[in-house]
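FAQ: What does the model actually see?

It sees only this:
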Amino acid sequence: MEATSNRYDVAILGGGLAGLTLALQLKRQRPETSIFVAEKRPGPAPEAAFKVGESTVEISADYFARVCDMKDHIEQDELFKAGLRFFFPAGDNSDITQRVEWGDSAFAPVPTYQLDRGRFENELARRNVEAGIDLVQGAFVDEVELDGDQHSVTIVQGGPGGDRSTITARWVVDAAGRSFILRNKLGLAKDVEHDINSAWWRVGNGLVDHEEWGAHDETWMARMERPGIRRYSTTHLVGEGYWVWLIPLASNSHSIGIPNSQRPWKSGRTTSRTSSRSRSSHTGASASSRRSAGPWSGKQACSSTRSTRRARTTSRWRTRTSAI
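And it is asked to produce this:
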């Protein structure tokens, strides 16, 4: 849709999870507030989108379900989460039943969820528009001028060479993720002395069934209240200096990632080398991924070594930080 005005109470830069939930929360609590959301993606997000923040904890689950009134969508179109599950090393890790397992044997009474971020954000976008929020997609933020009570935001529709337009707003919120629009503009970046890296990808056409790895062991299977619970956990396969996450998604795919630190190795290692080592050290996960007949797609290594010095001021602007 297009902007219906050139003056708003709030302009939100970024129409992802942070921007869309904030807009919806504001509109539900203050229906009279006029809100503009600029999102550079020109249309719906793909399912199993490459976005960190799929596995909720109790407070975020409550926020999405109750504060943003998304409970009906979550319980119908997303997955319930069976808590966190950790498998610690044992020998060559070839037999998962011999690894120390830490995790719940049943779903917790306080619900948490596994969110397919593409699916979830598409529904958030639909509800934003339905609530009367001006969500403009395919809108690239070209310039932001912070000026007292009336800030201005200039957007370019469709990217360079597209139609330019400017709106004003009493509040500007940067929810543009790793674009860091306000942080870069105001020079608020600061170095973080923690050298971390990660890589992540998706495996399609079926969920990784954790219990398949140990189905031969009746005692191991009997730890659960019923069969099938393990597969809905956020599972961590832990190794020296790294861990592998496995998160099931409602789009019948699996989010798999490897965060790692260089500190355990004096010579340092690249994420690709750590990925190779982790695959050979977690035979159950590797075999299950190979058996998936569907496509897989990857995200190159990401290093996050900067943070933001200040996230808000009394000058009516605010940043909402990226997960990575």
